[in-house]
Amino acid sequence: MSDEKRDMTSFVRGAEEQLERLKRQYRERFKSERPLTIVPYMGYGSARRLRVSGRVLVNPGETTYRNNEDIWDNLGDMYRRFENDVLPFPKVRGQYADKSAAATGDDDGLFGFDINIDGQLTEGLQWHDVDLMLLDQPADQEDVRAVGKVMVTSPRARFGVISDIDDTVIT
Predict the structure, then answer these.
(1) What is d(CA 137, CA 134) in angstroms, rounded to the nearest whole number?
(2) b/e for 51-68, b at 16 or more Cβ within 10 A?
(3) Which residues fall within 8 angstroms of residue 145, CB to CB, at 6 or more apart?
(4) DSSP of 29-92, one letter per residue?
(5) Is residue 112 within 8 Å of residue 93, measured between CB atoms?
(6) Based on the number of CB atoms within 10 Å of its own CB, is 126 exposed (0-12), middle (13-18) or buried (19 or more)?
(7) CB within 8 Å of 136: residues ≥ 6 apart
(8) pLDDT per residue as tens digits for the range 36-88
(9) pLDDT tier at 30, thresholds 50, 70, 90
(10) Mean pLDDT, rounded, of the chain
């Protein structure tokens, strides 16, 4: 066997071992004691397409606000809301009526895709539900699903207002 062939064989074996080690670590990290959650963001669309995005988190913990609790409990809850582990490169599928699309997210767990719907909107609604499903979840977990909300404005609308006032204090 030539030196080049031996080096290539050694490289491939080493890469396979490294990949198997990473897969074991992945399975251990994301086993069922750490449930996965799809967090959909508000989407937008038109009569032709719906834009869906969100993030996949690992065990997001407490997400509801508990009033009148101990300050240390509140600080701990706040930390858990901000400090989340993400599932890198999640594969997520979205479905609206009989149309669907899928995408692989980035290393921060963020995903986004368009669903081409060709005018198949439910009449009279401004907000539309898109069913989301994680495609690459661990085998020992139930299906990870969520419902994303997508706003489609009337085609008769002449202008829109976009505001980022949600985190601003007005006095």
Answers:
(1) 6
(2) bbbbbbbbebeeeeeeee
(3) 38, 131, 132, 133, 134
(4) HTSTTS-EEEEEPPEEE-SSEEEEEEEEEE-----S--TT--HHHHHHHHHHHH--EE-SS-EE
(5) no
(6) exposed
(7) 90, 91
(8) 889 999 999 888 899 999 999 887 665 555 665 677 777 777 776 677 788 88
(9) low
(10) 81
Rg of the chain over CA atoms, in angstroms?
22
Half-sphere exposure of 62 (CA within 13 A, CB side): 11
- Count of beta carbons in the 10 Å neighbourhood of residue 35: 16
**Cβ 55 vs Cβ 77: under 8 Å:** no
State which amino acid sits at residue 86. Answer: V
